[in-house]
From TrEMBL:
InterPro entries: Cys_synth, Cys_Synth/Cystath_Beta-Synth, CysM, P-phosphate_BS, TrpB-like_PALP, TrpB-like_PALP_sf. PROSITE patterns: CYS_SYNTHASE. Residues 6-282 form the Tryptophan synthase beta chain-like PALP domain. GO terms for molecular function: cysteine synthase activity. Keywords: Amino-acid biosynthesis, Cysteine biosynthesis, Pyridoxal phosphate, Transferase. This is Cysteine synthase. Pfam families: PALP. It is an enzyme of class 2 (transferase). Its EC number is 2.5.1.47. It catalyses: O-acetyl-L-serine + hydrogen sulfide = L-cysteine + acetate.
Amino acid sequence: MNDSILKLIGNTPLVKANTLVKNPKVSLYFKLEGQNPGGSVKDRAAYNMIKSALDRGDINKNTRLIEATSGNTGIALAMIASMFKLDIELVMPENSTVERVQTMRAYGAKVTLTRADGGIEGARDYAEDKVKQGGYFMFNQFSNNDNWKAHYKTTGPEIWEDTEHKITHFVSSMGTTGTIMGTSTFLKEKSKDVQIVGVQPTDEAKIPGIRKWPEAYLPKIFDKNKVDKILEVSEQDAREMTRKLATEEGIFAGMSSGGATAAAVRLCEEIEEGLVVSIICDRGDRYLSSDLFGEN
């Protein structure tokens, strides 16, 4: 028994791909982060950012919090803020799926929608302006070390132990880059031979949760030296693989997970042997109002 929903964050399952990899000497495993109570990998970072800020005295129950998000971080922050009785405003583009907006509001958060054509950059600008005006505290997941440290403390060790130290390649989509930075830092400490593979969209692709940032908005926590290889995926490949994950592997996830899986499968075709772990960062029910799972 657990005395708090927060105790259920982390220790997510690792499951083997059964149909997508043809090379018998290569195994692909999925880290099912949708099994977190808030439904995504962002529960880890959100908890660590809030708990660490409280422990340091950076915030208290009277602090007004604000954060820009494309969705999953906002849901995680809303859930965890509610558990700590904190007031939070979440800022996101108005074209975000209705499921995400409603979930944040269900947890009691205030949600502010910015212009769709401004993207997540516009949401970040709005939140930063509020902080400059005074009266708000922003976690700023893009430059907050507590983001990547969450994965150094939890995601990396879980993967290392669950693969019995046999992991050869780690694949992750890159958004804030917290997941790949923290997991890479831990795994490289255990074995410099583990290859870290980041996933970015091609120039014209729009894949929620994966970004190729303009220089001015590049996350400050990102260190290119912690990524051995970057693979790019198209929007079409991400969409097709997301659907294939559901129909062939029984894994219902979002498009960033499809993008990461497409890159991971490509990687599995390139290497002779190995054990590859790829992050499935959330659940597909967050995208049902979009056209992601429409008729093929």
